Amino acid sequence: MIMLNIMEHFPLRQWGHDDPRTVHAELEAKALAYADMLQYVGDPRTGKVPTGQLLSKDLGNERAKLINDRCNPAVLPSVVRDELARMGSDTTYLAAVDREGNLVSLIQSNDGNFGGGLVADNTGFALQNRARGMSLTPGLPNSMAGHKRPLHTIIPAFMQKDGVSIGYGS
After folding, report:
1. Is 70 helix (H, G, I), strand (E, B) or coil?
2. What's the Cα-to-Cα distance from 122 to each of 93, 119, 151, rounded to whole Å?
3. Residues 50-70, buried b or exposed e (16+ Cβ, 10 A)?
4. Mean pLDDT of 27-51
5. What sign does the dihedral 17-18-21-22 (CA atoms) show?
6. Is the pTM value of this prediction over 0.70?
7. What angle is formed at CA 138 by the lines to CA 133 and CA 132, rounded to 5 degrees?
8. Chain centre to alpha carbon of residue 25
9. Please, is 110 exposed, middle or buried when counting C-beta atoms within 10 Å of its C-beta (0-12, 13-18, 19+)?
10. Helix axes 20-40, 57-64, angle to 10 degrees
11. What is the C-alpha end-to-end distance of the chain, expressed in Å?
C-alpha cells in the first residue's frame, strides 16, 4: 500500500508498462516503501507501528517528491549487480494434511548460495539464513531482542475453509 500510494503520483498508464520511466518509478517507490517498512513494521505487541501514517496519502505524496529522473544514489548499480551475481536463493515449501486434519508445514529457505554456511551433522543440507534481514539493534521494531517477533519474508500459515485445512506459505 505504501508503494501504491507513491506510484499514484506518476502517469504510469500514460507511460506504459515497459517504459523505462514506469520501471524507474516502480523501483524507486519500492525502495522507499521498503525503507519505511524495515524501519517501522514489527510486532505491535512490543512497540507502536504507525500504520495510519505509513498508509496515508500524505506520506505517499511526500515520498513521491523524492523520486526524480535519476536513480537513488544510496544504491550503486554495480554493487547491486555484483551482490546478485554472488548470491542465489532457493526456497522449498511443503504442506501436508492427513485425513484426520493434522497439519504439517515445512519451509527451507537459503538466502545465498550456501544458506547459513552450516550443515547439521549427518543431514547433508545447509541451514537456512533468512534471519539475516532482521536487526540486532535494540529498540527497532524489527529487532530480535526480547520476545519480539521480527518481520520475516517467509510466513507459514494454515487456513480452514468449510472445515477443510489448507497449508500456505509466502
Report:
1. coil
2. 22, 8, 31
3. eeeebeeeebbeebbeebeee
4. 81
5. positive
6. no
7. 15
8. 19
9. buried
10. 120
11. 18
Return the residue matching grid coordinates 520501471.
Answer: 23
CA distance 31 to 152: 17
Report the C-alpha gap between 52 and 1 in whole angstroms.
11
Cell numbers standing for residue 55? 498508509
Compute the chain's Rg from CA coordinates: 20
Residue range 98-149, pLDDT digits in tens: 888 787 777 776 666 656 667 778 877 777 666 666 677 777 766 766 555 5
Q: Is the alpha carbon torsion for 17, 19, 22, 28 positive or negative? A: positive
CA dist 121 and 41 (Å) reads 36
What pLDDT is stored for residue 49 in this prediction? 81
How is residue 135 annotated by DSSP? B
Of 48, 65, 26, the residue nearest 139 (C-alpha): 48
Residue 58 in grid coordinates: 500524505
In the chain, what's the furthest Cα-to-Cα distance?
58
Alpha helices in the chain (DSSP H): 2-7, 12-15, 20-40, 51-54, 57-64, 77-86
